[in-house]
Specification:
Immunoglobulin-like, alpha+beta, 5-stranded mixed β-sheet
Length: 565
């Protein structure tokens, strides 16, 4: 399923259960218990034991051209043969095909044997035949929930994550609670306080489920596409770890070409959970899964710090959590500018994105904002081909995650994603400063004028000036307020200059500009020019503070960069 499949499904979908109720499943009336902790039994145990303990072939053509240390997928994807290239010859194609045929026959002869089917599906998929694995998964006649888990694994391996997610969501509610907790566990994806908090939550339990739901909502690669393929990848990885343990136990100890080779995989359950099973190894012999783990979609910030701290680092390092989607290839983060305003009790967002920062030509551009995995959301379709989309939209005041997602119609995707809190309440309130293109002929007098000329991102590459627009709320007409504006180099505390151009007057640049004026009403619009001509390249912060007649104050900050992109 390519990206176009997402496009055909539309911008937003019905609740997931409506998508999956018609999914094919095992026949009704089968037993609903699975002894998933037991060791494997014949014939699947005998098949695995024979294959992994048989003599290697003297034919080496399977791996002689495989540059494992360069990241090639070696040995047909059979990472149990990790050392065969260096130590002994590998199994030849005939041996591999015989093994795969025996797996399928075992599953088809015993469709009610949970592990016979599951191990066959697992083996066929990881040895490079996911379509055959999916066909075998469909013969499952064990417990309904178990068969749905097997189908979920098979569909995900067959690069059909939406179908995989549907079967996982059908199977998990009926699964043995201990197994369900094992499969959904995200401990290895968490750090610091998040990990400590999560480990204290009982499973099964609503608090743990709520934590996981929020985590996966924030980890969804594309909020405007149906389903969450990162979640189905996680369930697949965790289910395969269970099957891998049973495979390990099925092989007679001491007869491996290198004792403990199979155990080495299981020592890194955290790595498999974060990155998937390995597909190659590096020059040290350490297994890796770089091909299957290019992007880090889980937040780099802590879930417990709230959406205001939301931060992503999409390019995964080798030991980070990582995942490469199958529906799209190149994936880019793009910058933008999000500013908060108020209309009565409603939160109004002015949003822009600089899609020029990604090397794709967007044919479809979508906006979405949501308050949680089960909360309200708003979606908009934006004109395709617009590399600097700008718009405003209003919401009920609540913490939000907002995103712009752009698609080139092939394999390229770019996105902007930020967390937004409501404006801080008080007797005096300030909007965010909105940075405006300095080429406008006059300072913007209204919000719409400012939005029409807002910069696509807070980065000024080649200009001596930039304009800031903001609004003050909470005062009555005629009430005095004191305003101060300053710029400082981020992290260094070096105060720079502000050129004040307000209401037709110009003052000399100064480190901090302060003045007093009267409010024009409950919403008071303000704008001025910032002198950035003498600033060195780097990151800066614009800080605005307003004090009302009763001494109450409000402040706001806008971070921006100066210099060539």
């Amino acid at each position: 399923m390519r990206l176009a499949g997402h496009v055909r499904r539309g911008l937003f979908t019905a609740p997931l259960f409506a998508l999956v109720l018609c999914a094919p499943g095992p026949s009704a009336g089968t037993a609903q218990e699975v002894d998933w902790k037991r060791d494997l039994r014949n014939p699947i145990r005998a098949i695995l034991d024979f294959h992994y303990n048989r003599d290697f072939s003297t034919e080496t053509t399977v791996s002689v051209y495989c540059l494992a240390d360069k990241g090639d997928i070696c040995f047909g994807g059979d990472y149990e043969d990790e050392d065969c290239l260096r130590a002994v010859p590998c199994r030849n194609p005939a041996q591999m095909y015989q093994f795969m045929d025996e797996l399928e026959r075992a599953a088809r002869r015993r469709p009610r044997d949970p592990f016979a089917v599951a191990q066959a599906v697992y083996g066929l998929a990881r040895l490079g035949d996911p379509d055959r694995a999916l066909e075998v998964a469909r013969v499952c006649e064990a417990a309904g929930w178990w068969c749905d888990l097997v189908l979920g694994m098979a569909y995900h391996r067959a690069e059909q994550p939406l179908d995989a997610e549907g079967h996982f969501r059908i199977g998990l509610p009926g699964a043995d609670p201990e197994l369900a907790c094992r499969l959904t566990d995200i401990t290895y994806l968490l750090d610091g306080r998040d990990e400590e908090t999560y480990e204290r939550l009982p499973c099964p339990g609503p608090d743990r489920t709520e934590f996981e739901d929020r985590f996966w909502w924030l980890s969804d690669p594309l909020l405007t596409a149906p389903g969450n393929d990162r979640w189905s990848a996680h369930l697949t990885r965790r289910f395969e770890l269970l099957l891998h343990e049973r495979l390990r136990d099925a092989v007679e100890p001491g007869r491996w070409f290198e004792p403990g080779a199979l155990d080495s995989i299981l020592r890194y359950v955290d790595e498999v959970t974060r990155r998937g099973f390995p597909d190659s190894f590096d020059h040290t012999g350490r297994w890796r899964s770089d091909k299957a783990a290019r992007y880090r979609f889980t937040p780099a910030s802590l879930i417990g710090d709230g959406v205001q701290a939301l931060r992503y680092e999409l390019e995964a390092e080798r030991w980070d959590e990582g995942y490469t989607p199958t529906d799209y290839d190149a994936f880019y983060a793009v910058p933008g500018q999000v500013a908060r305003f108020m209309d009565g009790d409603s939160l109004v967002l002015a949003v822009s994105a600089d899609l020029r920062a990604a090397p794709i030509n967007p044919l479809q551009i979508r906006f979405v904002a949501g308050s949680g995995p089960a909360g309200n959301f708003t979606g908009l379709g934006l004109p395709g081909g617009d590399l600097t989309p700008v718009f405003t939209t209003s919401f009920e005041a609540a913490p939000l995650v907002v995103a712009i997602e752009a698609f080139d119609g092939y394999d390229g995707v770019s996105r902007l994603r930020e967390g937004v809190l409501p404006l801080e309440a008080g007797p005096v309130m300030l909007s965010d400063p909105l940075l405006v293109d300095p080429r406008v002929t006059e300072l913007p007098a209204t919000r719409q004028e400012a939005v029409d000329s807002m910069l696509p991102q807070p980065w000024i590459a080649s200009a001596n000036q930039v304009i800031a627009y903001w609004e003050v709320y909470g005062l009555q007409e005629g009430q005095p307020m004191q305003v101060s504006v300053a710029m400082a180099r981020e992290g260094a505390g070096v105060v720079t200059r502000v050129l004040r151009t307000l209401a037709g007057r110009s003052d000399a640049p100064a480190p901090v500009v302060m003045w007093t004026e009267e409010a024009s009403g409950s919403t008071h619009a303000m704008s001025l020019t910032l002198d950035i001509g003498a600033l060195d390249e780097g990151s800066y912060e614009l800080t605005i503070e307003v004090a009302g007649p009763d001494g109450s104050t409000a402040g706001t900050t806008r971070a921006f960069r100066v210099g060539e992109r």
